[in-house]
Amino acid sequence: MKGMVIRGSAGCALFVLLLGCSSANKPTSENFIKALNAYYLDHDDCLFPQGERFPYEIALGANSTQDEKQMDALTDAGLLTRVKDLTIHVERYSLNAPGKRFAPRFCYGHREVKGIVSFTPPAPRHGFTETIVTYQYMMRDVPVWAKSDALMAAFPELGKSLSASPSDQATLATVGAGWHVPE
Q1: Which of 20, 11, 35 has its CA nearest to residue 170?
Q2: Which DSSP symbol is given to 145?
Q3: Where are the domains of the chain?
Q4: Largest CA distance in the chain
Q5: Which tens digit of pLDDT belongs to each residue from 124-138?
Q6: Which of 20, 69, 126, 127 has an alpha carbon 20 to 30 Å from 5's alpha carbon atom?
C-alpha cells in the first residue's frame, strides 16, 4: 500500500511537472510576447540588413534615385561625407568617424513587443507547430541620428518603426520547448 502511494505521488509530481512545461507551448499572448522579445533583444532593426559597402558611388546626372536620397539623408545626419568626382562622373559617399560606429548596417535599435493583436490558429507546418502573430511594438535604444525626418522619409521602414504605434507580423514555432522565431 505504501509503495502505491509513493508511486502515485511520483506519478502526480511527474504529471504536474509536464503540465507546467507544456504551459510554455500554449498559444497565449504572454508566451508570444516573451518569445518575440527574447528574439528582438538580439536582433536589431537596420537600414541595410545585409550591410552596404563604402565608399558608395552614384552616377552624376542620373535622375534623383532612392539610393541618392538615402545616402544624402545619411550625409545630412552626419554619418557620411559626399564628394563629387567629376573625372569619373560619380558622387562618392564615404564613412566619416561617426558613420564608422554604425556601418555597414546602420542599426537603429531593437523592438520591444507591447501587445499581441491577433494570431492564426497554431497548425503543423515544416515539422513544427506554427502560428503567424500580429503584434504592436516600440523601438528601444534608438540613436539620435535615426530620428531625423529626412532619414524617416528616405527609409520608410525606419519611419514606420518610429511611428506612434507600429505593428508587424512574425511567424512563431514550437516543438515542445516553448515558442520561438524560426531562423
Answers
A1: 35
A2: G
A3: 25-45+108-180, 56-102
A4: 97
A5: 998 899 999 999 999
A6: 20
Residues 30/127, Cβ–Cβ less than 8 Å: no
Sheet containing 90-95, strands listed edge to edge, beginning at the edge strand earlier in sequence: 56-59, 90-95, 80-85
Upper half-sphere CA count for residue 46 (Cβ side, 13 Å): 14
Instruction: Identify residue 140 by its one-letter amino acid code.
Output: R
Check residue 46 and report its DSSP letter: B
| Predicted TM-score of the model (pTM) | 0.80
The per-residue pLDDT for 87 is: 85
Three cell numbers, residue 21: 512545461
Residue 61 grid cell: 546626372
Return d(Cα 40, Cα 155) in angstroms, integer.
20
> What does the block give as the cell for 173?
514555432
**Rg of the Cα atoms in the chain:** 24
Amino acid at 76: D
What does the alpha-carbon distance between residue 38 and residue 166 come to, in Å, rounded to a whole number? 19
Q: What is the pLDDT of residue 22?
A: 57
The SS3 of residue 125 is strand
Is 48 in contact with 73 (CB distance < 8 Å)?
A: no
